[in-house]
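Shipment paperwork, digital attachment
Item: protein structure file
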Amino acid sequence: MGKPSVLSGIQPTADSFHIGNYFGALRQWVQMQDTHDCFYTVVDLHAITSEFDPKILKKRTLTSFAQLLAVGIDSLKSTLFVQSQVPQHAQLAWVLSCFTGFGEAGRMTQFKDKTQKGGQERSSVGLFTYPILQAADILLYQAQSVPVGEDQRQHLELTRDLAIRFNNQFGKTFVVPEAFIVKESAKILDLQDPTAKMSKSSPQGCVFILDEPDVVMKKFKTALTDSGKEIKYDPTNKPGISNLLSIIKAVTNEDMTTIESQFVNKGYGDLKIYTGELVVEKIIKPFREKTMTLLADENQLNSLMNDGAQKAEKVAAATLKSVYEKVGF
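Attachment content:
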């Protein structure tokens, strides 16, 4: 028996990944390379569902690819590729869209959430149907596992429904994927609003992996803290302090009691500086340096992208051929 297969993707919608991406998902991606047959992709097709600049998208796609290599995705162990370079994604998405009910697609809560501000009239059909493209991403590679957060669980259910529906009508074609729940995934919160998840939409509260070290230190020094003086892990009453302690735990893997004991008789300022310096030394400096080195040799990066796309296409083409034969193409 070979290793179980897994697929996961990340959008190139920012100039840099942030530490929430790293501790919440990317670190697990690296670890899974030893236990799974991994397909990892920069999902640039998904990145055009809302307004975008082509030059910025191209640059961000290249940077995202370099960052995945920098954090430890090994292109020899895993299949690492850019989604748009494998045409079968769009081709299978069309077939699956013809098996998806309009009401079924309309029930996707992420579409509702994303259209609340601008309204449905200003939203693209791509934004409406992107869970179907996501289903194609997964089913093309016969992925048995998909690492998902709560916000993607509904989309995975749609993927499962479409796989079962197609299999029932045409015979066994797709593996029906299961959610891969990471047991201990660090939830990193915004430094300026420690009740919200860290997000690129909050530049001052978000620590980007490609930030300059002094920028990172400034963000930690100005992190929002709580009333009182005690440094104690208490997410309900001390969300700011608890978030900083969680970041230390994510970096060092020490238990919380040990971490708390280091700050007895110390102030909030000490905690902020210690956390910032730890993140800079262990995360920012090494990953930033590796990413910049990779970006300095664009020809090599493009070569790795082409290799990854060819590797991915071999698997994707076999799945699509089977689908096309079964639907009568």
